[in-house]
Design a protein that fits this description.
mainly alpha; about 110 residues; 5 helices; two-stranded antiparallel sheet
Length: about 110
């Protein structure tokens, strides 16, 4: 299931649960879908394993098949802070991965 399908399905399921909860609690809580492991880690490992840069279809396929967990809103930011780096935006994964690859390469040469 693609990331966008997961996001859409997760939101529909969340809305259904929250509709039920709202009647008893009175307020809806949002969720963050978080990649585990982080997309940046997953993509870096895949490139290392292949010994070459990933293509855009490969990057998108890895994103689409990656494991996500639904956490309470704000958890993604907390995870990024504890990890020391933010994950890639899955909606802009190709462009962000290209920038991150440059940064990682620069860090390795310094």
């Amino acid at each position: 299931m693609s990331f966008l399908n997961k996001l859409s399905r997760g939101n529909r399921e969340h809305e259904s649960v929250e509709t039920d909860r709202q009647s008893s609690v009175g307020a809806a809580a949002d969720v963050d879908l978080v990649f585990v492991p982080a997309l940046v880690t997953l993509l870096a490992a895949a490139e290392s394993e292949r010994g070459r840069p990933l293509t855009q279809p490969e990057v998108e396929a890895l994103r689409d098949n990656a494991t996500t967990v639904a956490l309470p809103a704000g958890s993604a930011a907390a995870m990024a802070a504890s990890r020391g780096y933010p994950d890639l935006d899955p909606l802009h994964v190709w462009d962000e991965w290209q920038r991150m690859r440059e940064q990682l390469a620069s860090d390795e040469t310094n």
